[in-house]
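thought: fold this chain, then report.
action: predict
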Amino acid sequence: MSSLRTAAILFTLLFTLTGLAYPAAVLLVAGTAFPFPAHGSLVTAPDGQVTGSLLIGQDSTLPWYFQGRPSATTGRPSNGASSGGSNLGPTSPALLRDVELRMQALRDRGIKGPVPSDLVMASGSGLDPHLSLEAALLQVPVVAEARNIPEDQLKERVLSLAVYPAIPFSGPYVNVAALNRELDRWQGGDGNGSS
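observation:
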């Protein structure tokens, strides 16, 4: 009987520490020290309406916006309620067809040259907001023309938002949603060159 009592006490103690106290302490510290990321990195419109998150890829086909990674979520692209990859293998005819269609869409948009894989293949979650710096720079001529700004100025903006991770085998990347928002703020409008 004493071993059952000891087990119950240990269970209660560990549950209280690891299930209640520790998560509450982490939430309190994170919410105080890093309030923006701790609360979901929410993006709001000028009227205060939440329009998305910098942690979730956002689908845009408008020519004056940088295009992010393709999304494999169900229902609609970048559907935060339906995270998941396509589960298609590298020899899957469906995946090869999807990649061909995405390549054609990029060519139709005006993208030239070799295309990095992250522009035509979805991430494991289907919600990745990041794009390799190489893939972002490839889009500079198209976005610069649509926004009616010099390519070198736009390239400078992209490079200023690039993140260079400390991990040696991963290259620099850009948060596409943050980049598009920054460009809208910089141009003072919707980015279509009308401001």
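thought: worth noting. The chain has two domains: 1-39, 41-187.
final: tokens above.
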